[in-house]
Design goal:
The chain has 144 residues and is mostly helical. The chain contains five helices and no strands. Helix 1 packs antiparallel against helix 2 and helix 2 packs antiparallel against helix 5. The radius of gyration is 16 Å and the shape is elongated. The chain starts with a helix and ends in a 7-residue tail after the last helix.
């Protein structure tokens, strides 16, 4: 999907998020010690990469969409962010597969619905503010 410049960074980070989800899903069926190591790695990558990405969306894109009357999409996005945060905070290695599924589903939702709506309804001024925020406080690029 072609993304406009103000959303390109967030969209490109989604690719790396899908890599994180795939790895978590693959490691979910491994031996207990491998799952424990994978969970520790997932928690660290969440803190370093996914959480900053969520916060950037919550500070830039979501307020702009709320102001544009897209409250239901904003509410769903925030609910999914909270759910994944809770899974990371309270979960363990047994949550690798469920977290991977939640993350992949969330990314698909954002790409197919949230970002498509943002491109359609946000005006130039709102998009410029989002771009400026991203330029100042860009989330760390997810490593693969």
């Amino acid at each position: 999907m072609q993304r406009i410049e103000p959303l390109r960074r967030l969209s490109s980070e989604h690719h790396s998020g899908l890599v994180i989800a795939r790895r978590a899903r693959e490691l979910a069926g491994k031996a207990p010690d491998a799952r424990a190591a994978a969970w520790a790695d997932l928690r660290q990558r969440f803190a370093d990469e996914l959480e900053p990405h969520f916060k950037l969306e919550e500070r830039g894109l979501l307020p702009a969409l709320q102001a544009a009357g897209e409250g239901l999409l904003v509410e769903r996005t925030l609910t999914e962010h909270l759910r994944m945060r809770a899974m990371i905070d309270a979960g363990g290695p047994e949550n690798l597969a469920p977290f991977a599924e939640a993350l992949a589903d969330h990314i698909r939702f954002e790409e197919k619905e949230l970002f498509e709506t943002a491109q359609r309804v946000l005006g130039a001024e709102a998009l410029e503010r989002i771009q400026a925020l991203h330029d100042r406080e860009a989330a760390r690029v997810c490593r693969t």
